[in-house]
Design a protein that fits this description.
- By secondary structure, the protein is α/β, with parallel strands linked by helices.
- It has 3 domains: about 200 residues, Alpha-Beta Complex (inorganic pyrophosphatase (n-terminal core)), CATH 3.90.1640; about 110 residues, Diaminopimelate Epimerase, Chain A, domain 1; about 120 residues, Beta Barrel (OB fold (Dihydrolipoamide Acetyltransferase, E2P)).
- Helix content is about 40%, strand content about 20%.
- It is built from 20 helices and 18 strands.
- Strands 3-2-4-5-6 form a 5-stranded parallel β-sheet, with helices on both faces. A 5-stranded mixed β-sheet has the order 7-8-9-11-10, with helices on both faces. A 5-stranded mixed β-barrel has the order 14-15-16-18-17.
- Strand 17 and strand 18 form a beta hairpin.
- Helix 5 runs parallel beside helix 8.
- The longest helix is centred in the middle third of the chain and has 34 residues.
- It is globular, with a radius of gyration of 25 Å.
Length: about 575
């Protein structure tokens, strides 16, 4: 697919030059910082040196005082407490965080993770029934609960108190819980709104530790779990998330929890561990357990204090991930073949195959978008209904498009970029047609072309070891603080190679003869074109290449444009 280059508008030049001089960096680097809202020496100092002292007071969050008092009461009376979490990375790390922190203080502590296939997302009726039968006094939900009005009412009717720790948007009516911690509440004055579910759980623990006078160091050591949740849930890595992620990555690299260490081992990951390693190495393995079987095994792993047990559990989860990969690969091939066989031009992809595995259809939707960049819904059949997973492109609000089809749906939920839904088989053809009409009428044409966001156009002469060191200090990277992508025009190549029939590797040369190594993963389509031309423009990120204890600067290619398509 052709990609559109979107080059960031220049920031205030005077501010950028002033900052460049104040912190002694080149102008392109200062421009990147100014775009991130950093305009002074003091702001740059805080950005490059995150501090746990800058974390917000947890008691600024609505209901935090109530939640902490109720948890203190549970500890004082040694009540029976259940930790309830979702089956994805954010949910399972949240449960592991809370279990590990509270286990020394509560003798009757247990957890519950719903079954993805039989119970679905959130606080289930089956979970409440089990908690009632087991005689729990208090349930703490993590990464779910904000819309669980019926099931929380069920718990309250059974005499069970409920603390909700969530980060999703509330509905019109809040559930009847004892306390509801959610920065997205309209009446919540907490200054940072982007915490994941695990981050909200962490704030509850921070409030409890303060109220109890416990040593914070025993809480800080759990930040690797919080960091994994932040990175895997793709929340913005800004503000408080960036501080938590920074220190969590330190812990992940130096002395991770045994379960996380075991996961890194089976994934073949070695320090330095970065955001990409978590998103593409650790997170898929954690998710695979909930997709293929039951996520309770992940909680067992993440709460294990025994290295041998952790390694056995990690190996088992890794095997589930291999199974997930094989199933996903087959379904993606089938889905792409179905798209290629379409006789009509469409702006959406909506596919159904009753045998497709429910646990991977969301990944399949994302993979289809990599090949056909348009809003996509992949359906399978579950319990007599068509169950689907939707993914969007650009800034298009896929949740709003589903709302326009709500009369055809049994249920749906999610957000602007991703959603889940179900419908009766009788409504399949009508829904597919209606969804196409709604999207075609509302989606801007430019959203149907993938975009490469470029921070700055630079000459290769700008790149140096010190330039890269400043970029590395901008980490951790992720939404809200992406690794900068640069572009350079008029390059030539030499020593062009095709590796394993799918990756390109070459040296890129500017007009002054300056040379850098460059690699493009999964870009075989550029190989023949590069052989036939003399000059091209390249978008790339600058990174360290570590090989046999030697570090060099390498440019990882994001896109290439040739003379016939150089318009950004």
């Amino acid at each position: 697919m052709q990609k559109r280059w979107q080059i960031a508008p220049p920031p205030d030049e005077a501010l950028a030059r002033q900052l460049a001089q104040a912190i002694n960096v080149s102008l392109p680097l200062a421009e990147i910082l100014v775009r991130r809202g950093i305009t002074s020496y003091e702001e740059a100092r805080d950005f490059f040196n995150p501090s746990l002292d800058e974390l917000h007071d947890p008691f600024l969050m609505q209901d935090m005082d109530i939640a902490v008092r109720r948890l203190q009461q549970a500890i004082d009376r040694q009540e029976k407490v259940l930790i309830y979490g979702d089956y994805d990375v954010d949910g399972t790390t949240s449960v592991a965080l809370m279990m590990t922190a509270l286990r020394p203080h509560l003798q009757l502590l247990d957890y519950y993770v719903p079954n993805r296939d039989t119970e679905g997302y959130g606080v289930s009726a089956a979970g409440i029934q089990w908690a009632t039968e087991q005689g729990f006094d208090l349930i703490i939900s993590l990464d779910c609960g904000i819309k669980a009005h019926n099931t929380i009412s069920q718990a309250v009717e059974q005499g069970i108190d409920f603390i909700v720790c969530d980060h999703h948007t509330p509905g019109a009516e809040l559930p009847p819980a004892t306390a509801i911690l959610d920065p997205q509440r309209h009446d919540c004055r907490y200054p940072y709104k982007e915490l994941p579910g695990c981050g909200v759980g962490f704030k509850l623990l921070q409030g409890l530790y303060h109220a109890q006078g416990w040593q914070k160091d025993s809480l800080w050591v759990l930040l690797d779990l919080v960091a994994v949740a932040i990175m895997a849930d793709m929340v913005p890595i800004t503000g408080e998330n960036r501080i938590l992620c920074h220190y969590g990555l330190q812990k992940l690299n130096e002395n991770p929890q045994p379960g996380l260490a075991a996961l890194m081992s089976v994934a073949g990951l070695k320090p330095p561990i970065n955001t990409g390693n978590v998103v593409f190495g650790i997170a898929p393995r954690i998710n695979a357990a909930g997709r293929m079987e039951h996520a309770a095994r992940v909680v067992e792993l993440l709460t294990s204090a025994d290295q041998e047990e952790a390694h056995l559990l990690a190996s088992e989860i890794n095997a589930k991930n291999e199974m997930r990969r094989d199933i996903e690969k087959d379904i993606v091939e089938q889905a792409l073949a179905m798209i290629e066989a379409e006789q009509e031009q469409r702006v959406t992809t909506v596919l159904h195959e009753p045998t497709w595995h429910k646990g991977v259809i969301g990944i399949v939707a994302s993979k289809c978008i990599e090949h056909h960049h348009r809003p996509t819904i992949i359906f399978t059949t579950s319990n007599g209904l068509l169950t689907g997973s939707a993914r969007s492109v650009g800034q298009f609000d896929i949740h709003a498009a589903l709302e326009a089809c709500a009369d055809l749906l049994e249920q749906f939920g999610g957000h602007k970029y991703a959603a889940g839904l179900s419908l009766h088989p009788d409504n399949w053809l009508t829904f597919r047609s209606r969804f196409e009409e709604v999207v075609a009428a509302t989606i801007p044409q430019e959203y149907l072309t993938p975009v490469v966001y470029i921070e700055n156009e630079i000459d290769l002469a700008v790149i140096s070891d010190s330039f890269l060191r400043v970029i590395e200090r901008m980490a951790p990277f992720g939404p809200g603080n992406m690794r900068p992508v640069f572009a350079t025009r008029g390059l030539r190549h030499k020593d062009l190679r095709l590796l394993k029939d799918e990756h390109i590797k070459m040296q890129v040369v500017n007009e002054d003869g300056l040379v850098f190594e460059a690699i493009g993963f999964y870009m075989p389509h550029f190989y023949e074109k590069l052989q036939a031309i003399d000059s091209f423009d390249m978008a790339y990120v600058i990174e360290k290449n570590r090989f046999r204890d030697r570090e060099t600067i390498q440019l990882q290619i994001k896109d290439i444009k040739f003379a016939t398509n150089t318009t950004a």
